[in-house]
Amino acid sequence: MLCAYGYLAYTLARFEYYNEFALSFQHISPTRLGYLVLAILFIVLNWGLEGLKWQSLLQHLHPTSLWWSIKSILIGITAGFFTPNRIGEPAGRSMLLPEGKRSQGIALMLVGVMGQTFASLAYGIVASMGFLNLHPHVSFVPMGMWFGFGIFVVVTISLVYFLLPCWGKWILTGSYPAFIRFMWEIRMGLLRIDAVANGIRAIINGLKPYLRAALSVSYPTLLKVTLYSLLRYGVYCLQYYFMLRFFDVQIDTLTALMIIPLNYLVVSVTPSISFSEMGIRGSYAILIIGAFTQNTIGAALAAIGVWFINYVCPMLTGSVLLLYTKKQ
């Protein structure tokens, strides 16, 4: 909690756009104010969907209520706020689980992270292909190559993600398909070295308790996780669009539908610490969204505003819940 609040204070002290932020509230119209209200209200929908996803993942390990699920999520955000790429969030989210189930909870959360990453990459790649189709002059390689690469990435991610139950069965039982057994026996490259092969086996055996939890997720649960992830990503995009309208960024809806997921895609693949995302998101907004509007400061403020309402506000709420839970 101390680290989270300390980094938040440090970030706010370095914020460069206080004057522009104050000016955006002058002569504000009811329509623009309505967009701000919608963006804030969507916080409930955003974390409600994440709560349903977390509840679905825990249904066999530790059945919970939706409120318990959301509370553990908010505590996890507090724990992950000052860690690189929020790697502390799984541990924080699992704090409320009984002892003996926390490591399995971390593994299940990673499945949820994979679902959200799948949604982010799928939306972003499809949006980038649509963007390049409308603006082929910005591409440095032939369009066919871009489309082929995009389809390859989406198909590869889909196979890895949606075959999780199969991977679990193969790894935990050792009953690999014939082609995987064939590739293992060939031992190409480093696998020709027995020490490397034995090391890989040792790693797999050590990770089996975690793999058993993460990879035993059923297909119905995986489909629900995917649906909640896709819906949540759509909420993110709508919040961003509402914030752009609030900060008077004039951009047509079709262009916004393509560049907002593209902006999120670039942010998601950039290593960062949660508290530093404010600057990263603002920079990417100026680079990507600012190319379609003269109000680049408004684009940066919209990105920072989405980050603030979706991470800082939940972090503050989670810190209060963490303190209350600790007292109990």
Taken as a percent bin, the fraction of beta residues is under 5%
User: Mind telling me the C-alpha Rg?
Assistant: 22 Å
* Weakly predicted, low-confidence segments: none
Structural class: mainly alpha
Order of helices and strands: HHHHHHHHHHHHHH
* Overall residue-averaged pLDDT value: 77
Number of β-strand runs:
0
Q: Major sheet, described briefly?
A: none
The total tally of domains equals 1
| Helicity range | over 70%
Straight-line distance between termini? 17 Å
Q: How does the overall form come out from the CA principal axes? A: globular
Total of helices: 14
Topology:
Elements lengths: L1 H12 L4 H6 L6 H28 L8 H15 L8 H5 L8 H33 L8 H20 L1 H10 L4 H9 L7 H21 L4 H28 L6 H16 L8 H12 L7 H32 L1
Helix pairs in contact: 3-4, 3-11, 4-14, 6-7, 6-10, 6-11, 6-12, 8-10, 11-14, 12-13, 13-14
